[in-house]
Amino acid sequence: MQHQTPETLPPVGAPAGGATGLPAPRPFDAPFIEVYGAREHNLKNVSVQIPRNRLVVFTGISGSGKSSLAFDTIYAEGQRRYMETFSAYARSFMGGLERPDVDKIEGLSPVISIEQKTTSRNPRSTVGTITEIYDFLRLLYARTAEAFSYATGAKMIRQSDDQIINYILRHYDGKKLVVLAPVVKGRKGHYREDFQKIAKLGFTKVRVDGELLDITAKMQVDRYKIHDIEIVIDRLIVKEEDRFRLSGSVQNALTHGKGTMLVLDPDAKGESKAEKGKPQFFSRFLMDPATGIAYDDPAPNTFSFNSPYGACPTCHGLGEVQEITEDAVLPDRKLSISRGGIAPLGEYRDIWIFQQLQLILKKHKATLNTPLEKLPEELLQRLLHGISEDEADDRKSVYTEPFEGLIPFLRRQMDSESDNIREWIAQYAQAQPCPECHGYRLKKESLHFKLAGQHIGELSTMDLTELAAWFEGVEDRLSERQNVIARELLKEIRKRIGFLLEVGLDYLNLHRPVRTLSGGESQRIRLATQIGTQLVGVLYIMDEPSIGLHQRDNERLIKALQHLRDIGNSVIVVEHDKDMILHADYVLDIGPGAGIHGGHIVAHGTPQEILGSGSLTSQYLSGQKHIELQKKKRKGEGTELVLKGARGNNLKNVTLKVPLGKLTAVTGVSGSGKSTLIHDTLYPILNEYFFNAKREPLAYGSIEGLELLDKVIEVDQSPIGRTPRSNPATYTGVMTEIRALFAEMPEAKIRGYGPGRFSFNVKGGRCETCEGAGIRTIEMNFLPDVHVPCETCKGRRYNRETLEVRFKGKSITDILDMTVEKAVDFFEFQPRILRKIKTLNEVGLGYLTLGQQATTLSGGEAQRVKLATELGKKDTGKTFYILDEPTTGLHFEDINHLAAVLQKLADKGNTVLIIEHNLDLIKVADHVIDIGPEGGGGGGSIVAQGTPEQVAKSGKGHTSRFLAEELKTSKYAEA
Question: What average pLDDT does the segment 246-261 reach?
């Protein structure tokens, strides 16, 4: 393999754009981005030419330096240059950026980075709000939707003063009429001051709760009852010649009634008393003429769940409420109250609440020692929900005093100002859909504005394919006036939905909270937004956009990236996906190894040129190297874990059978229901069974086979730490063992040092100048902060006395600076330490140092550190492992290592379940469960299951087609 020397730039073959008919770079454009002498992280003085206006893929083994070149060098320099265009005053507020370790970069355009970071943890942030589609929808509804009454379903009407007068003259001609202005509607109070105000205005009569009364001195009503009060503005006989008087009365009534008024015919004949005295409502606003319900004029914030004008008052626009459930309060009904049957109260203590319960139970011939299951269900319900005053006063009743009830009492504590009390209550509460808005997040008035028969909440919960179909030809279902107003808005909404469909997100809906999206999904949403901006001349840098994407959707993603390139942008993608590499215009392969063994350009050129280069990547692309399959699959335990009737989200009453003691892959297109079935249903059930976790699983029928397992371990994609103090040694727990080992050294014992002396996070052994960080941050006004090694400890983190204690001649700092590979040899006779370090080496992280800062780890590295941590724990052979796309950020060679580790786990009798799209890992599984066939509403069923070969032959679902292709070219290992 050739390593790139720093002196020369790699010559560039004719970019593949010529064949695709791409426009040649204009003469005044720099044809290349030229990087000279990049040394960031593990890069070895790399100099390289990257063609502009092309789709360029950076590939190579995990940890070889791809992200260091793309993000930490090219993007960091682009961002720094942009910041330098601001005034010194503006930069002082923003903080500056450090110059990356590179000699120079030429031909750099403005840079936009689209990374995998989930955009927001805010529960109010949804797909609709971050793509701005929901903002356009709000505007569309505010300007064109029709209002309907939530009481009768009738269409709301709006009347001008003249229309009201003409209506009265037409319908009440010659009749006696009372004109009323409503001032109080359905509220409690004595209203003494209001009656005084009305009298001062010159009015002599009011109508209170349907009865006409004269205003008297000190007049008031019952303050504890609900009242309706109207001012009697005028009493007249309706005649055309008295139009002027009627007009004045109507305007007066509308002024005092704040836009609404009533008229009453006292002589009207009705079948019932209620009908006889029924007034007719009129309003300048939207109003239901039958009930008098009026809505404010709609504005965009009427449809915003983040605004008090639109949010549901019960859940405050979150769509769910924290409800205290009976099962959480009474987790084990075999226990009595005194033995802790009521979980929030705990075991019996001599306090008021237990005395109260004892009194109530005594009346029912029971005691605090009676098991809950033996108490009548009616009595339990009353203990939980309360005994009212009426029941307590009832002579037939056995109760002596009212009792609030345990659940109402706990509910009151949820609003407590004490954090401790709120945390205590949180463990008995679970999120439930809001009973008021049914999860739509908006108040009832907002949900009764409709466009072509649908309210805005219904549109938000449609998946994007359905939504696109609904907007197709919506003009035919709208009136001419609505079409004139909506024309531009509809164009904008359709365009944005189209971009999301283009990057394979058809299964999402606008209502979906952003915090539930995977890194790959949020990255593709940002990609769709960038396509929508239609910028040209920009350099886009992306970090594995294909993560979480099924092979079927890869083609759409590649087309979206090619579209970005075709409109005149340069696109750099850090990627391991085979299809993406083969569709690129130009490829840079970085290697040859990882960490200190990487940082060189080992091959460059068009995909065809890469195939002949002999690099590790090219060997896998050309088929010289393979991840080999075993002809014979594991027999497993012969038993199954069976989950019946899973109905969460889009699942259609699924029965999942996971064979125990095997390596099982769950596959399916994005949005088919894999995460719903495994993460949101199966894992919470197992977690609750083994560890009493409180997270509620989604709806399911029953589960069998739990007793055949003894624990569950989930390895997901969240980072291992967000501060430089977190590192592989602290995360895996090996640091604790190393500190204990150093505390056992004779020198440490003589000095009286315990394990805490060897921690860089607590006072004692650490350097106090930098507080154990090893670096000091110097704040510079108007310039970026500068990080310099600590002048006291020279970056070693500990004080001189601590470093004098040595093991095999190495201080604690020397061990933190050691690579995992070297540490395996160094600790060969320390079994507790060796077991944990060895697993880090086995998952392909031998190149990391034990003390490497968590913030410098890539996504794939962080996930493998977590995997190694779990593998380092002693397994019992009955453990159930759940892994979420463990191939994230892994090169073909690393997937080979990972497959070997997972096979070892299954060989010991453990059950390994992986949610995966990568065919290299799916094909080596013993059992495949394919969910689909489509995403969103079109998914949620198990379409095929069996060995990879059986699923490939089945021809059902999208996975079988791609798996069949993969198996054709795969080789089987010799038995």
Answer: 92
Check whether residue 448 and residue 314 sit in a common domain: yes
Q: How many CB atoms lie within 10 A of CB 473?
A: 8
Mean confidence (pLDDT) of the chain: 87
> In this structure, are 214 and 235 located in the same domain?
yes
Q: 415 falls in which pLDDT band (50, 70, 90)?
A: confident
Q: In whole angstroms, what is the distance from residue 643 CA to residue 641 CA?
A: 7
Q: Helix 892-907 crosses helix 859-872 at what angle (to 10 degrees)?
A: 20
Domain that includes residue 113, residue range: 32-119+534-622
Tell me if 188 sits within 8 A of 272, measured CB to CB: no
How many angstroms separate the CA atoms of 542 and 519, rounded?
Answer: 12
C-beta of residue 522 within 8 angstroms of C-beta of residue 116: yes
Whether 900 is in a domain gets the answer: yes
Taking the C-alpha atoms of residue 972 and residue 947, their distance in angstroms, rounded to an integer, is 14
Instruction: Indicate whether 13 belongs to any domain.
Output: no
| Co-location of 877 and 962 in the same domain | yes
Local confidence band at 118 (pLDDT 50, 70, 90 cut-offs): low
Label residue 544 left, alpha or beta by phi (over 0 means left) and psi (-120 to 50 means alpha).
left
Confidence bin at 43 (pLDDT 50/70/90): very high
C-alpha dihedral, 221 to 227 to 228 to 233, nearest 10°: 10
Same domain, yes or no: 196 and 315: no
Query: Does a structural domain hold residue 542?
Result: yes
- pLDDT confidence band for 439 (50 / 70 / 90): very high
**Contact by Cβ (8 Å): 584, 55:** yes
CATH of the domain at 699: 3.40.50.300
DSSP 757: G
pLDDT at 21: 52
User: Number of folded domains in the chain?
Assistant: 6
Domain match, 756 and 849 both = yes
Q: Are residues 935 and 964 in the same domain?
A: yes
Q: What is the pLDDT of residues 879-902, one digit of tens each?
A: 999 998 888 888 898 899 889 889
Does 5 reside within a domain?
A: no
User: 862: pLDDT confidence band, cut at 50, 70 and 90?
Assistant: confident
Amino acid identity for residue 896 in this structure: N
Percent of the chain with pLDDT over 90: 53
β-partners of residue 931 are: 942
Shared domain for 676 and 665, answered yes or no, is yes
